[in-house]
Write a sequence for this structure.
């Protein structure tokens, strides 16, 4: 009975979060310039329905909703990993300059007139290159520390910001709207959601068995080493995983802030600090939150659309300030 209760405790919140995520996706698919009722949506899902509804759901709205869910889940899981790695509840996936490296590479490819597929590949390559650069600079002659890693990431991120400002200043006027929308996080031009969904599913399967070791690592490297955890390989694995997840998210939807910062922090306040529960809960809650934000972004001033990053910032800033107030 003692083994069943913790398992049931972990399963029940995940079940509710999964139901909420499905409801958010259904709402996103149903809401738009042409509303789709529950019966019409069910007809489309069951393989029937009118051709217009099938086109709207299967070709336009559902891929965008799935891309938003995958992006939000990737950012939230990456944020949970970064908070464990840096042992700082206010760390987020972008703190190490990953979004800056992706943005520089993506904007360069836009200025070169490359197609959207190559822009996404360039963003992914830029994020990984930034991760390697930060890790190499923070390592130095000896082993890296969380403080050195954080400071190096902040400096590199500032450098990327200066490069981005320079490119926006010299960029052609006709290309500036697309570049700015990418920087603010926009799902309107998201490609196929399946690569991001596959990365999210595979990372969840790989990271879940590491939950117990991550719980020990969150208490500090000395205590983790004393309890038999291989601290350095685990930290390298966490850093590489967070970098890969962030790169995949940025490649899909551009720079979207606050998801990786707020979602894991709020889940810890509600569910505790067990990473075996936090990581899958973050994937579901982060995905659901970004789906809701994207739904608001494309409907709140319809027919015009806002970047999803604007909505997440409007939701995330007051939430972050409230969490700071509570942490006093």
């Amino acid at each position: 009975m003692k083994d069943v209760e913790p398992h049931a405790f972990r399963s029940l919140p995940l079940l509710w979060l999964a139901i909420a995520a499905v409801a958010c996706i259904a709402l996103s698919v149903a809401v738009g310039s042409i509303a789709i009722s529950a019966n019409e949506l069910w007809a489309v899902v069951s393989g029937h329905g009118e051709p217009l509804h099938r086109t709207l759901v299967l070709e336009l709205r559902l891929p965008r909703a799935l891309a938003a869910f995958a992006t939000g889940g990737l950012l939230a899981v990456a944020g949970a990993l970064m908070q464990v790695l840096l042992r700082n509840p206010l760390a987020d996936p972008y703190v190490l300059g990953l979004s800056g490296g992706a943005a520089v590479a993506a904007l360069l490819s836009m200025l070169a007139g490359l197609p959207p597929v190559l822009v996404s590949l360039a963003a992914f390559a830029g994020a990984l290159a930034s991760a390697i650069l930060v890790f190499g600079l923070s390592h130095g002659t000896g082993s890296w520390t969380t403080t050195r890693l954080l400071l190096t990431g902040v400096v590199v991120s500032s450098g990327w910001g200066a490069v981005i400002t320079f490119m926006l200043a010299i960029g052609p006027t006709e290309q500036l709207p697309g570049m700015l929308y990418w920087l603010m996080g926009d799902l309107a031009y998201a490609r196929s959601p399946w690569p991001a969904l596959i990365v999210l599913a595979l990372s969840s399967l790989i990271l879940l068995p590491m939950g117990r070791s991550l719980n020990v690592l969150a208490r500090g490297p000395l205590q983790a080493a004393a309890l038999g955890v291989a601290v350095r390989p685990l930290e390298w694995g966490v850093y590489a995983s967070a970098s890969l997840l962030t790169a995949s998210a940025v490649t899909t939807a551009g720079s979207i802030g606050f998801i990786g910062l707020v979602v894991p922090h709020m889940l810890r306040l509600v569910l505790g600090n067990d990473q075996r529960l936090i990581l899958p809960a973050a994937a579901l809650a982060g995905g659901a939150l970004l789906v809701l934000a994207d739904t608001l972004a494309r409907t709140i001033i319809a027919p015009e659309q806002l970047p999803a990053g604007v909505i997440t910032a409007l939701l995330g800033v007051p939430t972050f300030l409230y969490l700071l107030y509570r942490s006093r």
